[in-house]
Amino acid sequence: MIIDPLLRPDLARLASALGSSPLTRFAPSPTGYLHLGHVVNAIYVWGIARALGGRVLLRIEDHDRIRCRPEYERALFEDLAWLGFEPDIGLDPPLRQSEAPGVYGQALDRLRESTRVYACDCSRKDIGGERYEGRCRERQLEPGHGRGIRVQLGNGDEVFDDALLGRQLQTPAEQCGDLLARDRDGHWTYQFAVTVDDFRQGVTLVIRGADLVSSTGRQILLARMLGRRNAPVFMHHPLIHDGIGEKLSKSAGDAGVRELRSAGLTASEVIGIAAARVGLLNPGESIRAIEVTRLFQN
Ligand SMILES: [Zn+2]
Asked: Active-site residue among 65, 250, 288, 294?
């Protein structure tokens, strides 16, 4: 179940937690077209970054080489430009995860110095749920085709202050067990790649949807194991709901930015619709990308 976060963060508190010029990121995967859920995220990312005098990095999360397509990436740049959300970093050249494969291997090597990193041939079916029980920890399998790589996480609680959800306590080793860093197809996983990237790119403020909050403790722990001293500040914002408390999926009618555009809507109208869907604006109001900061200022 997803707990509904507050709508707006306490900006003064955020500013004092972050210091000067925070760096946040907008990090879509080119596995489909941008939809209203992405626009909600962009409103938060650009709105809060600008309100704090910070910058926005655009990261193309194309770690899943099977589902990502170049046409989606092209559309993503186009749609973002049409909406008017302009990143400070990552437009030219784009920052793609697929172009930095060496970085993830180096991070894994670094982890080997302090924890167990091992090959695992368990399928999703073998594992059954979200938590991996450590079946391959002692098997000493050779890494290779059809084998993933796992990292043994430390035990204990992770406590962090979410800028919208408040204090959170999570226990990564109990939630997910040993973390999958690379899957059986040889792809770096979301959890691993995103943690390495936020660290190496100097991201200090992570703004994303509330559906990702359960991943945060393990990402903070992993970042610390990688040598990151100060975890980023996390902020998990409300998602567009379908009215029965579920995250809105494409099938539930979440509209694509391109569909709305070809139906004749302006960028301000599309951003207005997204903002209204989470309660940041009244239905029917429009707002331009460069104005979204005012949604977070009193
Ligand atoms: Zn296994």
From this structure: 250
